[in-house]
Amino acid sequence: MTGDKPREECGILAVWSPQPTDVAGLLHLGLFALQHRGQEAAGMCVSDGHQVVVEKDLGLVSQVFDEARLDQLRLPDARLGIGHTRYSTTGSNLRFNAQPLTVRSSKGILAIAHNGNFVNAKEIRQSLLEGGAVFQTTNDTEVMINLIARYSRLSLVEATAQAMRELEGGFSVVLMDRHTVLALRDSHGVRPLVIGRRPEGGWVFASEPPALTLMGAELVRDVHPGELVWVESGQLHSLQVLEPHPTPCAFEWIYFARADSVLEGIGTHESRVRMGEVLAREAPIQADVVVPVPDSGIGAAIGFSRASGLPFDYGLYKNPYAGRTFIQPTQALRDLKVKLKLAATPAVKGKRVVLVDDSIVRGTTSGRIVQLLRDAGATEVHVRISAPPIKYPCYYGIDTAARKELIASTHSLEEIRRFIGADTLAFLSEAGVRAAIGGPVCLACFNGQYPAGYPHEEPQKEALEQAG
Amino acid sequence: MTGDKPREECGILAVWSPQPTDVAGLLHLGLFALQHRGQEAAGMCVSDGHQVVVEKDLGLVSQVFDEARLDQLRLPDARLGIGHTRYSTTGSNLRFNAQPLTVRSSKGILAIAHNGNFVNAKEIRQSLLEGGAVFQTTNDTEVMINLIARYSRLSLVEATAQAMRELEGGFSVVLMDRHTVLALRDSHGVRPLVIGRRPEGGWVFASEPPALTLMGAELVRDVHPGELVWVESGQLHSLQVLEPHPTPCAFEWIYFARADSVLEGIGTHESRVRMGEVLAREAPIQADVVVPVPDSGIGAAIGFSRASGLPFDYGLYKNPYAGRTFIQPTQALRDLKVKLKLAATPAVKGKRVVLVDDSIVRGTTSGRIVQLLRDAGATEVHVRISAPPIKYPCYYGIDTAARKELIASTHSLEEIRRFIGADTLAFLSEAGVRAAIGGPVCLACFNGQYPAGYPHEEPQKEALEQAG
Amino acid sequence: MTGDKPREECGILAVWSPQPTDVAGLLHLGLFALQHRGQEAAGMCVSDGHQVVVEKDLGLVSQVFDEARLDQLRLPDARLGIGHTRYSTTGSNLRFNAQPLTVRSSKGILAIAHNGNFVNAKEIRQSLLEGGAVFQTTNDTEVMINLIARYSRLSLVEATAQAMRELEGGFSVVLMDRHTVLALRDSHGVRPLVIGRRPEGGWVFASEPPALTLMGAELVRDVHPGELVWVESGQLHSLQVLEPHPTPCAFEWIYFARADSVLEGIGTHESRVRMGEVLAREAPIQADVVVPVPDSGIGAAIGFSRASGLPFDYGLYKNPYAGRTFIQPTQALRDLKVKLKLAATPAVKGKRVVLVDDSIVRGTTSGRIVQLLRDAGATEVHVRISAPPIKYPCYYGIDTAARKELIASTHSLEEIRRFIGADTLAFLSEAGVRAAIGGPVCLACFNGQYPAGYPHEEPQKEALEQAG
Amino acid sequence: MTGDKPREECGILAVWSPQPTDVAGLLHLGLFALQHRGQEAAGMCVSDGHQVVVEKDLGLVSQVFDEARLDQLRLPDARLGIGHTRYSTTGSNLRFNAQPLTVRSSKGILAIAHNGNFVNAKEIRQSLLEGGAVFQTTNDTEVMINLIARYSRLSLVEATAQAMRELEGGFSVVLMDRHTVLALRDSHGVRPLVIGRRPEGGWVFASEPPALTLMGAELVRDVHPGELVWVESGQLHSLQVLEPHPTPCAFEWIYFARADSVLEGIGTHESRVRMGEVLAREAPIQADVVVPVPDSGIGAAIGFSRASGLPFDYGLYKNPYAGRTFIQPTQALRDLKVKLKLAATPAVKGKRVVLVDDSIVRGTTSGRIVQLLRDAGATEVHVRISAPPIKYPCYYGIDTAARKELIASTHSLEEIRRFIGADTLAFLSEAGVRAAIGGPVCLACFNGQYPAGYPHEEPQKEALEQAG
Lengths: 468, 468, 468, 468
What we know:
Four copies of one chain form a homotetramer.
Chain A: E1 7-8, E2 10-16, H1 23-33, E3 41-47, E4 52-58, H2 61-64, H3 67-73, E5 80-86, E6 101-105, E7 108-118, H4 121-130, H5 140-150, H6 156-166, E8 169-176, E9 181-185, E10 194-197, E11 203-206, H7 209-214, E12 218-222, E13 227-232, E14 235-240, H8 250-256, E15 262-263, E16 266-267, H9 268-282, E17 289-292, H10 298-308, E18 316-318, H11 337-341, E19 342-344, E20 352-357, H12 364-375, E21 380-385, E22 398-399, H13 407-410, H14 413-420, E23 424-427, H15 430-437, H16 444-447
Parallel strand pairs in A: 17-20, 20-21, 21-23
Antiparallel strand pairs in A: 1-22, 2-5, 2-11, 3-4, 3-5, 6-7, 7-8, 8-9, 9-13, 10-11, 10-12, 13-14, 15-16, 18-19
Cofactor (chains A, B, C, D): Mg(2+); [4Fe-4S] cluster
Family (chains A, B, C, D): In the C-terminal section; belongs to the purine/pyrimidine phosphoribosyltransferase family.
Pfam families (chains A, B, C, D): GATase_7, Pribosyltran
């Protein structure tokens, strides 16, 4: 639900073309396909080999890129560029945190965009400060670009590889100078990044395959964990900088990635259907109808329906205008958020309902949905969650609620069931998630085991406003 | 799809409270629930028995009503008000066409909001002009209010009843002065209008029941065709002005009304499921999976799946950001509208797909969706439409395309099938629609039989810019 | 000073061209030249003989007319149009009060714009209401257009002349249908209106001559009091509807009209210089320097300097950015309005200053300016006002403060002097004003003698929000 | 004239208070008083000793600082801050160039704002790049802050003094960390900077004294050329880092600084009056009236009138709305810029006019004004310019036109006279400027003698878009 889901922090994108093309137009399409990965800011950077133009701002892709901005980016001989969609906390300044970040260095102009987090950013930043560096933001991105710039005698590829060796955490990055595009993933491949090819020989890198499709490119493969790839003379070059230890984030399959994405060869919608099937076997129930929380529970509800034999139905109507800002009418009516978004249809009247969703964060939203169904005449409401309980923070680019707000980190299953008012409640097991996805995954937010390390002290979101 | 669906022209709303209450807040909620009936403009008018305040503008409810506007409307002793959401063609002036329309007359201040059309508006307007009247818009609404004002010696109720007797067409209207709220439907009840009651004794009138729910009211009944109702001294009064000949618009059940609406006692989602079931029996097909065009085909796809036994699946991903304005990247990429909104999921790969939607207007969108599925690996695509072919214009408030653009009015079934590239194509029969809804309905856009008359000459959308 | 000057209520404009021309562009220039007569709203209406397009909104001319709006108005065969700048009280609705007002009547589309007020508007409105008319605004303009429309069997010229005979007060009006432009003044000629001719044979009507100049027209003459003029077949036609009793508003020469205007053959700047000269003779003083309050006191200060022989100097700097909205920093700093706008220059240090301005309304601003001069080292401050004290409200289109706020209507000269902290204070006499202007003028705001009548009861500014 | 005047590049401001105060409110007032020094962007930075908040954007002070932005800056315990108004070329990105620039360094958070230019910025930037630094803008400001940060073992005061020793050119700078405010001028004192004291013991630094006045501070003195001052424990400390060679910019007195400013003890308005007096003696003429180009020529016109005995009059009306953006009506009417801003009053009719202005850059504007006067009936027009001809570019923070556009660098006096259509033309001599100001000044734009050096190669305005 709005405000009660873990949030992805970014989508990234890069394109390289053998001949002049509408790079800004391509990036614009790709960013639109990655809008779900970040709604707070969007930006892109384009080069023709000489000029480098960047445009970025707070807002949705469709808000940031009007005709005037796109015209600024439309260099007649444009051949390469990178793009970014960003989730971030609010604050007018934070506009300056929008990406791509563009700097001039001894290697010329560099632009960078990233998804994820470095767990040792603080230590590296401190060492750079002592060397005389200055930072204008609190972005990890600025740390990485300063690290690369420090190796002023190495080539851009070598300096980037060296930075990869020093940085720890879960991150995917795209990077460009005036001629070359680079893309890389951390050694665990926590955040996704795929490679695509366009018919005329161009290369595209994106967080998810649907961006490739919209840009007219075919999926080639995922960037490997620990790999650095770049385009030189039209060829894709690869350097396996670090030994791969693949543990991609399970939540990409559970919720984040689009339903038409395929990551590491595994379709997200298909794995969600399988999660629902496993869940139906792990936690069966006698009921009349399986109802998804739209849209996040649809895949798992279909799976639950298939495995249980119970009919799937559309028991919750989602108001398509609910995403917009809406002035809450009065103090007394504040509690309407869920009702503005969802309404139970008469299809649930007199029925025993299995309600399927993908997660419970604070529990308040789930409780309100259960109540909606009861008000509409559901006789029983059985809640089935297609993932384990979220108990731990993510240090690799996901904004879960603070740990003390995570209901599962402080309450038992029975307490949660009572809190949300369900007749029964069940979560999918960790084994169930693994089985449904079918590959190695990071489950740190469920079990606290962090494959790519964690910060020495838990990082607090620092604003520029705070002390240095 | 965007730009390829018939469009409802308005949602209307009224509230009357026995004691001072947050009328603006209630109307705001109700309008949000009626947003799907009109996205171009929104407005409301509130009174405390002395002052009458109106705020209206082009835009979505959430855009028009910011804090400042709501504050203007928040009279401390507010007791009644009306609201409106409007679909209209673009044009900066047309802001002046937003409703409610508020006028001063010999009966004091009157405000009016309406949904639908008068087929004899032109003749009545001409007669009023000759009597010295002036018109500031080309709205039917202004014709009605002038007609009522002309009866300066009758009471508001009597004058309104007299106007009902003179006006022909399909329309629902809400009307207020500083003390009273009135609501009425044409004698065929073409456009919906329901009556709700709030726990404290207040009355609410709305185009659809979900507006009542969000405003904390319970559905009492539909306003009857040809009935005029009003609230006086806290009591609901009724006058059956015209003999009822009920033929409500079938498209409300097929597509327009929300999936959680119940009109004339018949649930829309349930009737859509039944349309899918009847369609599966009328036009069965051997296939692997039933895929809805989201969101309009979901109900019928569930019905088709149930009646056919074929599995329902989520084969088309709908980008939730697609409704927003989006600068088309270049001339060459213009054709991307459908791809920006929909993407086929890998669930259709290697499958024979039954694609379920509720209508085909021009055919171009349907053709592109069929192609999306084939590109994603569907081996066969069988299109099933849960309504008959649209062949005729609507004169009662729906903006279908012009007749020559309606593919079904100029092409045979086989021609349409070839145009959209489907393996097979079938539409639900008129009898099937009647059976699925289960009551008398207007099917004029399918069969050209207009129960509430039609204009002597087909009206052209007149802009203020054009000659008087 | 900002917020402490009488305010003109409107500027009006009309153009007629023998061949297609850029009517919108011409009106745009003319409105810019009339911006000082109304800053709250602007609008224009253009016709090519068939279409009539209107664009209007709250804001300055430069804000209302962006490229998009001008494009709407640029009919390829445009030949005539009218325009308006408006001062009005704030309120989001009041957008609907912007002019020109465009209506459809039995005479076809009519557009009207006016400057001034009808003192018997209320009675006429009541009679129209009883005849079945409805009103959408509280503008006098809507009353006039309804009055004209009521004469549905008369020609537009005859109906307008008939309306002139019924309306009382001080007003200038421009009016158009799709072919003709009309212009008229009340029988006292209270508000200005001039006729201009363009080299190619076109006609222009405007509140002040500088609008003609910017539109490339030469001043022909003033419209006579009580005269109705119109363009037919390229000829200017005239009908002296009412016997003229010329008493044009003296404040046009004292303050409102631009310094480069010539009204009734009398230059405003020249008359202001003469007011200063007469004032220097009526109220001489020993001093070192004559300092104008910029910009309103410049003309009179030059005259005072010439007649007195005292040197003119630039003792007050006016911040050119002060007109803009400015967020007052804190409650404690609220009193800064004058300081944000004006600052004393070192030129006044150690000097005995004659401070020249054109009016004192509430007195607070004058008091603060006197203090500014003393703070900067002026040893004496002698205030000279180039008009008599304002004691009475204007019923002919000027928004003076309410009578109880007019310091001169409740305080003696000596009390005002003490209130503003001046060493001496003198106002120009009524005789002095007459002498400096040199023609018959309305001095009602100084002496309470209303040549064009006054309302039976003092009209209160009615908002739409109030009862009908 | 609009678009035909040399433009100041910046205004700077700093405040330090012994106890918590409304620093943002004070800076807001001060920036408003410095608006004339830069209209493209505004910003401020505030600290309470712990937090540092910055808000900046493109636009006027009144546009950038709305309630929301001021609230962001209103730390309850705020004690110090700096502010900036900026002139810059357009371009959406350039928002990122707005000042103050805020960075984190080994010395903690630093904020900096500057006025002027470093002539050796390019060399210093190159050396920093080679040391691994990255730059996000092309601002000189970022060079200076990186230079300071490089001295990571020196204190902030020592590091700043060291940077002053390395930087060449004409510049004034304010700088802050979380506790201290610093202010400095280059060794020639080219750009102004003054010190003020508030009654409660606070310190203020500003480009011009009127900012002090509005902030409630008294002028103490100018910062000396080559001096670094800072506030520590409430005391003002001073370090004369470089030997002073005072040559402040003459154009501050001629045109840039406000008419109520006093710089280096010399009032600007008084010196302008003296320039007019000297000019009248250097280039006397028989005429009837002295007319200033408002507002820039007023001071000199008063002086010319006094010395010549010819009457001063207001022969050009300046439209107070002319500063706003205004859509040019059509291609054909493009040439209206001057007419939209200025109009001749009838005061010049039949007169021999002395037209007084402070500069001629391209000559086109002057030519149009001469024509305006002739069109209004002036029989002769004698142009008198209160400064020498501008022939050379400024490298110290003023944006004159490019040298080839400077009419005086390519044309003789007689050619210019003919170009602008004047009967006679005279410029004030260099000696005349020196005499009127009465102290040593930089006259580089008149004589090409650059006291503070010049770039090895003439710097081109680099955009981020261009190569690094």
